[in-house]
Specification:
Among the domains are: 108 residues, 2-Layer Sandwich (Uridine Diphospho-n-acetylenolpyruvylglucosamine Reductase, domain 3); 122 residues, Enolase-like, domain 1 (2-Layer Sandwich). β4 and β5 form a beta hairpin. 31% of the residues lie in helices and 19% in strands. 46% of the residues are buried. The strands form three sheets. The protein has a five-stranded antiparallel β-sheet with strand order 4-5-8-6-7. The chain has a four-stranded antiparallel β-sheet with strand order 9-10-11-12, sandwiched between helices. By secondary structure, it is α+β, with helices and mostly antiparallel strands.
């Protein structure tokens, strides 16, 4: 049986109390909301904080407000997010949240927790004894990346479902510390490093996600995984387009997930769509551009060459859906093939 290491648990009631605790923790504290990622990691000794700061009692983090767009508290559970009527207009976010894990885990897991999800790797996501037997990796306790032994940085993969969707939707996030509050684009929350994968400072708490008004945008999210539920993505595509009355794309964003240590925006693919109708030729050209920067490593499920090829296919499916094609049967067929 895997047991949790010893730790002190603190349960603040306000954001102010939480950031005060972070400021005085000397970097040895971690935040926990639903605990669906942090607690299993602690059992495997991937993370061993001396203090856990629980966020579940902070009511301000569980609110969803609808003013200029939508503001979602970082402590809103994925289940509550899916139940909120205003979220239905943000198709990519709704689809991404609905495909996270299983219903019991979505009842516990939060949007902020999924956004800040730890990076994953077959060599890292093992128990302590397994990792010790092969020698530890640079992400925890070691000095080498077992995915690419000559690499100078950790190649663990970003496996958050909601981050690609939020980036495609043009979301921003609010970070709060004792020094004040700052708001950054969701894409700027991440860096392409398997260890230091977030730009959030150790003393900062992610408090909210802001979504702009829909204003004619359509969006979707496609996820590749071994099983039809529960699994982390090994490839994902989030796409959003804004179309004029004559069917011409006025603006677009395409984002790849689970092929690098951060979600990857593909500006070349977005640019190829703007000013064009979503014809088969336009979609094929954009899908080719999506596949080019996809360089998956051999540290998750499925063959890496196949995952790169499927990036083109999933981008095609996503853009066909945004064009208005009925892809429900295709989604079901893909799910059956992977079971």
């Amino acid at each position: 049986m895997l047991r949790l290491p010893y730790f002190e648990y603190r349960s603040p009631r306000t954001v102010g109390e939480a950031v005060d605790l972070l400021a005085t923790s000397s970097g040895e504290a971690m935040l926990v909301a639903g605990g669906t990622d942090v607690l299993p990691n602690m059992k495997r000794r991937q993370q061993v904080p001396t203090t856990l700061i629980g966020l579940r009692r902070i009511a301000a983090l569980r609110a969803i407000t609808n003013a200029e767009g939508l503001t979602i508290g970082a402590g809103v559970t994925l289940t509550d997010l899916l139940r909120h009527e205003k979220v239905q207009a943000y198709g990519a976010l709704r689809q991404a949240a609905a495909q996270v894990a299983t219903p019991p885990l979505r009842n516990m897991g939060t949007i902020g927790g999924n956004l800040c999800l730890d990076t994953r790797c077959n060599y890292y996501d093992q128990n302590y004894e397994w990792r010790k037997a092969i020698d530890f990796c640079m992400k925890k306790d070691g000095e080498i990346c077992w995915v690419a032994t000559s690499s100078r940085r950790c190649l663990a993969v970003s496996s958050t479902d909601t981050a690609p969707a939020l980036i495609a939707l043009g979301a921003t996030v609010t970070l709060t510390s004792v020094d004040g509050t700052r708001t950054i684009a969701a894409t700027d929350l991440f860096r392409n490093d398997g260890i230091e994968y977030l730009t959030r400072r150790p003393t900062e708490l992610l408090t909210a996600i802001q979504l702009p008004r829909v204003d004619g945008w359509r969006s979707t999210y496609w996820k590749l995984r071994r099983r039809g539920s529960f699994d982390f993505p090994v490839l994902s595509v989030a796409a959003a387009v804004k179309m004029s009355a004559d069917g011409t794309v006025e603006a677009a964003r395409v984002v790849l997930g689970a092929v690098a240590s951060r979600p990857l925006e593909i500006p070349q693919a977005s640019a190829a769509l703007i000013g064009e109708a979503l014809t088969d030729e336009t979609i094929a050209r954009a899908a080719d551009l999506v596949a080019q920067p996809a360089r998956p490593m051999d540290n998750t499920d499925f063959a890496l060459v196949w995952r790169k090829r499927v990036a083109r296919d999933f981008a095609t499916y996503a853009l066909h859906e945004l064009r208005g094609n009925d892809v429900r049967a295709l989604r079901r067929r893909i799910a059956r093939q992977l079971l």
